[in-house]
Structures are given as C-alpha cells and as structure tokens.
Amino acid sequence: MSISYDCNSSDTRQAGLSAAADAVRAGQLVVLPTDTLYGIGCDAFDADAVRSLLATKGRGPDMPVPVLVGSWTTIDGLVLTVPRSARTLIEAFWPGGLSLVLPHAPSLAWDLGRTRGTVMLRMPLHPVALELLRDVGPMAVSSANRSGRPPATTAEAARDQLGDDVRVYLDGGTAEHAVASTIVDLTGGAPRVLREGAVSTAAISEALGVDVAVE
Predict the structure, then answer these.
(1) pTM for the complete prediction?
(2) Using CA atoms, how far apart are residues 76 and 105, in angstroms rounded to an integer?
(3) 173 in a structural domain
(4) Which band of pLDDT confidence, cut at 50, 70 and 90, is reported for residue 177?
(5) Cα-based angle 109, 114, 119 (whole degrees, multiple of 5)
(6) Which has the closest alpha carbon to 162: 72, 42, 16, 19?
(7) Where are the transmembrane segments (predicted)?
(8) For the chain, how many helices (H) and strands (E)?
(9) pLDDT given at position 189
(10) Which domain holds residue 39?
(11) Which tens digit of pLDDT belongs to each residue from 48-75?
C-alpha cells in the first residue's frame, strides 16, 4: 500500500521525507519531485531495488538507471576520475538540469544495468529531492512513468501510472520546467551532448569554451 505526502505543507513535509528515507533504506521505491520531472528512485547500491525499479517501469537492464546526488563532492567517490570539463560544468549548472556521463569507480558495488563502466550523474535543483538525497545518499532515479508513457509532471500523474509498486510519493507540486535534463557524455576525448533538454548546447559550449558536438 502506497502513501502520498504533501511536501508543500510544513505539517506533512518532514513526515514524508522521513517515510521516504525509511522506504529507500528498506529497498523500496519512492517517487520524488525534481526540478525537471518527477522521478522514481531507490538506493543506488541496492541491486534488488534497482531491478524492481526497472521492472516497475517495464524496462530492461539495457537502459541503465541514472544516479542523483545531493552535493557536488559526492561525485568524487562515484567516478574513476573527475576531468576539468566535468568540474566546469558542475560549477556552472549544478544543481540543475544537466546530467553528466562519466566512467564510474570500478570498486563500487552497484548494478544500475548495462552501463558499460559508466554512470550518469545529476544534482537536482529541488529542495525536497536534495534533502532526501543528503539523508540517504546517492539514489538511482529514472523518470516516474511506465515505459512508453509520458513522464510525470505531478505526483498524482506518477501515482496513476505506478500505483502501489511505489511505497512513498512525495508531492512537491507541478514540475517547474517539465523538461528532461540535458545529457553530456564526458567519457571520450571531447564532450558530446547525447540529449538536449533543460540546458542548451550553446550554454554548455560557452561554459567549456569549445563547440560541443550533438549526437
């Protein structure tokens, strides 16, 4: 049985965050608001929970789950090395709608799907998401929708699709931007935009001081 908490109300926000943190630690799924779209998430280091997330969405391991973090410094423990280009983009756009693909640290005991040794990381610009992430640590988070259906821009829309497969819904109102994050691949010799979304390619090129290619 799932339960929803209105995080716009101070009376229920802390209760919701506490319930969501307990659910994450118990290997269950939660829906949380972000600055882009609503996400369905779990403990990034709980392989069973990640498999449950993929099954709930109706996706396979060929589409790995991104990871959300609650601070800039968290990235240092998750990736093999942090190139200067990543630092520059983090300083320019985090927290915000920019996801970075980097080689993950080989010592990490996680299974996010067929990542080919990489991880996609983002720090969202939403107080509810950040508070939860800072409590429980990195979370595997994908858009809160069944595969092939529209991403949810409200907690109610997410619940309509995902139902009781999710333990806790954190309702933070309508997603402010309702657009997916921009994805930049930093695993090769030059940055590449894999998907343009909340942050424009022009803004990324300006921050890095080079013209960035778009896949």
Answers:
(1) 0.95
(2) 9
(3) yes
(4) confident
(5) 60
(6) 42
(7) none
(8) 6, 11
(9) 85
(10) 3-84+94-177
(11) 999 999 999 999 988 899 999 999 999 9
Distance CA 57, CA 93 (A): 28
Burial of 106 (0-12, 13-18, 19+ CB in 10 A): exposed
Indicate the residue type of 102.
L
Which domain CATH number covers 46? Answer: 3.90.870.10
* Model confidence at 178: pLDDT above 90: no
pLDDT band at 160 (very low <50, low <70, confident <90, very high): very high
**Cβ pair 181, 98 in contact under 8 A:** yes
Q: Is residue 192 part of a domain?
A: no
**Is a pLDDT exceeding 90 seen at residue 123?**
yes
Amino acid at 190: A
Let me know how long the chain is: 215
CB 179 within 8 A of CB 197: yes
d(CA 52, CA 67): 15
Which of helix, strand or coil describes residue 204? helix
Closest CA to 16 of 152, 169, 126: 169
Determine, yes or no, domain membership for 45.
yes
Distance in angstroms (rounded) separating the CA atoms of residues 172 and 119: 27
Q: How many domains does the chain have?
A: 1
> Does 102 map to a domain?
yes
Q: Say yes or no to pLDDT of 125 above 90.
A: yes
For the residues 145-162, what does the mean pLDDT come to? 96
